[in-house]
Amino acid sequence: MPRHELELPALLSDSPLGFLAALGILHLTEPVLEEPARLSWRGPAAPAVLHTSQPLTHAALAAILRDQLPDKPAEEPLALAPGILSLPRSGPFSDALRMPIDLALDRLRAHAAAEREHRAPAARWFTALVNQLSIGPKDNKTAKPRTAPGQPADLYTTSTPLFGRGGQMTLANNWAKAAHECRRGETRLLDALTAWRRVDGYAGANLDHHSTGDAHMVSTGKATQQGVPGATWLALHGFATFRLTGDSTHSQTTSWDRVTTNGALTWPTWSPPLTTTGITALLEHPLVRTPSPDLTKLTNLGVTAIYTAPRTRLPQADGPLQPGRRIHP
To answer: Cα separation of 135 and 108, whole Å?
Structure first.
């Protein structure tokens, strides 16, 4: 059982980027540590705590995470599960994760076989990034039809709603940019754990409202993107915690609420150390999805607070997540 604790002071429970980054650490360390790490929180608006079976310092953890960076991010962004984010486009969309549903099911069967035979993790990652329960026809008006008149339209998968898109943005190129920035800066993963340092010109994958860099927020007086690449790269790996669902119209996932026009990430914090499996179960718990006015029920689950961060909207694109707002208790 994990018996060593490492507080991560930069990953705060009321920040959507901090919350997702803490989840990402669990997935990135899983292939390396002797026993799976667990995660808890010091409390509301407080740091994450990593629980491990071996003692770790911030520098040692950062070194482990750095070893998981892809060697060539532009060619293979997701080193933990090669062959998913490096897929070629198979339709009219810029995002290769939007593929014909038949092709997606074929690929999932192949990944599932590899998991059974070789314990490869690709099936888990594929289902976390490619949504086969929310499908629709191509909506690119400039694309040539793939079907003959009178034939059913080709149906394409969607991806996770946790990632906000705009223009030619794709999950793969945002993942690659975050990894590239982490490789460029020796301390960026350590900074992600201890004290965030923003990087001029780095966008931040729409997970952090403060990365928008409004003119009044920077010393030059000029608007510029100021993301945190280390925390963003970790947060993207946190997507594996959430199970994708859908109703054929909207892409849905654990903790994604459509109470606002653009949706919102809603998440709990908890006190007992949990593995990734336990965290997914907690995120999906009915009392967390619809908080009870009886505080003892959530307290019995170990929940200390619940936060939400609606997604903003730009003129022709999804915007970043707003800062977290406590909604319970």
So the answer is: 15
- Measure the CA–CA gap between 271 and 10, rounded to whole angstroms: 18
In 3D, which of 38, 22, 14, 20 has the Cα closest to residue 305?
Answer: 14
Q: Can you tell me the mean pLDDT for 259-269?
A: 90
Beta-bridge mates of residue 52? 4
What is the chain's percent helix, strand, coil content, to nearest 5?
35, 25, 45
CA 184 to chain CA centroid, nearest Å: 22
CA–CA distance, 325 with 321 (Å, rounded to integer): 11
Q: pLDDT band for 220, please (50, 70, 90 cuts).
A: low
Give the sign of the dihedral formed by CA 80, CA 82, CA 86, CA 89. negative
Residue 76 has pLDDT above 90, yes or no: yes
Q: Tell which residue, 241, 306, 300, has the closest CA to residue 269.
A: 306
If you average pLDDT over residues 296-309, what whole number do you get? 93
